[in-house]
Specification:
By secondary structure, this protein is of the alpha/beta class. 42% of the residues lie in helices and 22% in strands. The chain has twelve helices and 13 strands. Strands 1-2-3-5-4 form a five-stranded mixed barrel. It has a five-stranded parallel beta sheet with strand order 7-6-8-9-10, with helices on both faces. Helix 4 packs parallel to helix 8. The longest helix is centred in the C-terminal third of the chain and has 42 residues. The N and C termini lie far apart (178 Å). 21% of the residues are buried.
């Protein structure tokens, strides 16, 4: 029940602490999972002090247990170990401090961790975070590379040295963070997000030089996987551990087997690119020369043809033929004209022979009435009618008698 207080009637600190302790005492025991970050076993002391931390978040809680509880797992549990603790919350009123009183401690085995990772892997895959179509292409020549790695680590040295050996002008924005332990996940996530927020960063490499399954657990954390999935910048996973695949390898846009391999995949080799440029340039030169040679041969072949060597040769060869045809045409035309002339003369003679004028020259006359009609029958004229008589050399008038 909420307490009713006023500025005139406040609660003393001791009363508040007592009330909080009463509420916490009513809580039952719970199973808690975390990673041991601090372990204090004082000689002769009957109580062991632990600090249990959530690897994914910056949250920790104090744990106390009797020595006999801890001694049962002392051989397999130490700082950095992941454990399950059955504990009851306790409130230490004088200091206002919350802690857990452990009644049982169990180490989390590798098999159990792998089973949980497999369940998480299936859940994230069902959301599509590992889908190939979500992968982003890496730029051919990144100008600025973001690198997340351990401080002064072999992974950092391998990436920087190999990348600068391949392309001396490449630049890096490095974030040194813990790559194992309880502080790894939040700091790696923060580093990835910081680099993703920098506009000039073209690609981000998350590198670590291998390790045991427990050491690589931060790179299978759900928070880190979702952070990488939400990046606008392509992310390369370079966790050098071949037997096991952390979930970061699946969500990253490119997986490299080692940090050295990441440098080779992200940064092109200047020597190889220059050799490729030279090869392409030589190939282009050869293609151009081959094209020119082929065209020159074609032009030479065309110029070697008789029609191109002596353009008038064809005309000269056809000139005699044309002259022969012209002469033949003239002869044929002459024959036709002669024959036509002969036929015309013959026809003219026939026309002349059959013409009325020739008849008149033989002494005949043609009688015509006044209206011009030729008289063919005596019954056509009447006595005393005036007629016109046409003879070979002219005409005269005649009159019909009785």
């Amino acid at each position: 029940m909420a307490l009713k207080t006023t500025p005139e009637a406040p609660l003393p600190v001791g009363e508040v602490s007592r009330l909080i302790g009463g509420w916490i005492d009513r809580l039952g025991a719970v199973w808690v999972e975390g990673q041991i970050t601090q372990l204090s076993r004082r000689p002769g002391a009957g109580v062991v002090f632990l600090t249990l931390r959530d690897p994914s978040y910056d949250i920790s809680v104090s744990v106390t247990c009797y020595r006999q509880v801890f001694d049962a797992v002392a051989d397999v549990v130490g700082e950095g170990a992941r454990v399950l603790v059955l504990a009851k919350p306790e409130w230490y009123a004088p200091r206002g401090q919350l802690s857990l009183r452990a009644a049982e401690i169990r180490p989390v085995g590798v098999g159990e961790l792998l089973a949980r990772l497999e369940q998480l892997k299936k859940a994230l895959a069902a959301e599509g975070l590992f889908a190939p179509e979500r992968k982003k292409r890496l730029p051919f020549l990144p100008q600025l590379i973001g690198l997340v790695c351990g401080r002064a680590s072999a992974a950092e040295r391998d990436v920087l040295e190999n990348a600068r050996h391949r392309w001396p002008a490449v630049r890096f924005e490095v974030r040194n963070v813990p790559v194992q332990g309880v502080h790894a996940v939040p700091q790696v996530v923060q580093a990835v997000r910081e680099l993703d927020a920098i506009e000039d960063v073209d690609v981000i490499i998350v590198a670590r030089g291998g390790g045991s399954v427990e050491d690589l657990l931060p790179f299978s954390d759900e928070q880190l996987v979702r952070a990488v999935a939400g990046c606008r910048t392509p992310v390369v996973s370079a966790i050098g551990h071949e037997p096991d695949t952390p979930l970061l390898d699946l969500v990253a846009d490119l997986r490299a087997s080692t940090p050295t391999d990441a440098a080779k995949k992200v940064v092109p080799d200047v020597g190889e690119e220059l050799a490729r440029v030279r090869m392409l340039r030589d190939r282009a030169r050869r293609c151009a020369h081959a094209l020119l040679d082929r065209e020159e041969r074609g032009l030479a072949h065309a110029l070697a043809r008789p029609a191109m060597e002596d353009p008038h040769r064809m005309v000269d060869e056809r000139a005699d033929h044309v002259a022969s045809l012209a002469e033949r045409g003239r002869r044929t035309l002459g024959h036709l004209l002669d024959r036509a002339d002969s036929e015309l003369a013959h026809t003219h003679a026939r026309v002349v022979a059959l013409s009325p004028a020739a008849t008149l020259k033989r002494g005949y006359a043609v009688l015509q009435r006044a209206d011009g009609h030729v008289v063919r029958d005596p019954r056509e004229v009447s006595s005393g009618e005036a007629l016109r008589a046409r003879v070979a050399d002219g005409e005269f008038k005649v009159k019909v008698g009785e």
